[in-house]
């Protein structure tokens, strides 16, 4: 897993999702199993300590876009990688 800042460089520290009233803070950008992901959190999610996980893909003209992660196992893998990056892991050598 490695971190990248490409999404932050393009959008700053917050991003607005289509159809959402609230901006999301970009908590982390991670590469898991060769795929880029973004971990986001809105202000209302902070109280519940909830996060959203999105796949980062390159769109037209090289701009970065977010795709919803539908697969539960994929979502859990990224959420676990985020937790490990934030809090450390006993599994790491």
Entry summary:
The protein is α+β, with helices and mostly antiparallel strands. It is built from three helices and six strands.
Overview of this protein structure:
Helix content is 28%, strand content 38%. The chain is built from three helices and six strands; from the N terminus they run βαβββαββα. Strands 1, 2, 3, 4, 5 and 6 form a six-stranded antiparallel β-sheet that branches. The longest helix is centred in the last third of the chain and has 16 residues, at 72-87.
Structural Rg = 13 Å
Quantity of strands, as a count: 6
Oligomer: single chain
Give the helices and strands as they follow along the chain.
EHEEEHEEH
Q: Assign a percent range to the helix content.
A: 25-40%
How would the global form be characterised?
globular
Number of helices: 3
**Which strand-content bin applies to the residues?**
35-45%
- How far apart, in Å, are the first and last alpha carbons? 14 Å
User: Which residues form runs of ≥5 with pLDDT under 50?
Assistant: none
Structural class: alpha+beta
Can you give the mean pLDDT?
Answer: 87
**What is the makeup of the main sheet?**
6 strands, antiparallel
Based on the model shown, name its key terms:
3 helices, 38% strand, six-stranded antiparallel sheet, 93 residues, alpha+beta
Q: Could you give the topology of this structure?
A:
Blueprint: E1 2-3, H1 6-11, E2 14-16, E3 23-32, E4 35-42, H2 43-46, E5 52-58, E6 64-68, H3 72-87
Antiparallel strand pairs: 1-3, 2-3, 3-4, 4-5, 5-6
């Amino acid at each position: 897993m490695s971190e990248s800042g490409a999404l932050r460089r393009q959008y700053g520290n917050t991003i607005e999702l289509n159809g959402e009233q609230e901006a999301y803070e970009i908590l982390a950008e991670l590469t898991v199993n060769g795929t880029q992901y973004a971990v986001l959190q809105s202000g209302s999610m902070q109280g519940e300590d909830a996060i959203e996980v999105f796949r980062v893909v390159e769109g037209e003209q090289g701009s970065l876009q977010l795709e919803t992660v539908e697969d539960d196992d994929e979502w859990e893998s990224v959420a676990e990688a985020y937790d490990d990056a934030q809090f450390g892991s006993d599994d790491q050598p």
